[in-house]
Amino acid sequence: MEVAKQIAHSLLKTGAVKLSPASPFTWVSGWRSPIYCDNRSTLGDVQVREQIAEAFVNLVRSKYPDVEVVAGVATGAIAHGMLVAAKLKLPFAYVRAERKEHGLKKVVEGAAVAGKKVVVVEDLVSTGKSSASALVHLKEENANVLGMAAIFTYEFDEAREKFKELGAELTTLSSYTALVEQALEDGYIQVSDVEALKKWRSAPEKF
Questions:
Q1: What is the pLDDT of residue 124?
Q2: Buried-exposed string 97-125: b where 16+ CB fall within 10 A, e elsewhere
Q3: What's the CA gap between 39 and 111, in Å, rounded?
Q4: What pLDDT shows up at residue 28?
Q5: Dist CA 68 CA 111 (whole Å)
Q6: Rounded (10°) angle between helices 157-166 and 129-140
Q7: What domain count does the chain have?
Q8: Is the pTM of this model over 0.70?
Q9: What H or E segment, with its residue span, contains residue 147?
Q10: How confident is the model at residue 103 (pLDDT cuts 50, 70, 90)?
Q11: Is the pLDDT of residue 207 over 90?
């Protein structure tokens, strides 16, 4: 939990995560949300970027010591995945959202993944749709996917079910629970906001 809250602190500090219970954001899906997350913002802060990369490296070394390839999910996790691969001195690949319709029609670019033990790096897991799609694409390319490591998760039940169905392991550096606790400690929100934030996470489509 200590690492999760440290990462949450950095996400809030860099503005990668913004909380606004009183004036919710509108997602592409149409959901109204008191939180907005864009972890690409962390790339602009050298210290935070390094913190996240090192946390990923520690996670991968402890859970997946046999990893042979690091793969990032396009587009948000390409840079983070590349940083991790560089620190681990491993080949890097990235997974497109969809297979190209021209040229070699690739869905996985960079290092070859067939027959390789792969750890997938993701920046954000929300409903889990795009993350699960990346895992499916890698398996279609005959990769041995060891697991996925992400910076942040909203902890939606829908995402949990998708990973369970795929038999895939998801480990995250931080989470919605840790973030709300840290936001309260850091003064980004008030005690009166916590209930609304918890209510949204349990039923975001009704917020």
A1: 97
A2: eeeeeeeeeebbbbbebeebebbbbbbbb
A3: 24
A4: 84
A5: 10
A6: 10
A7: 1
A8: yes
A9: strand 144-153
A10: confident
A11: no
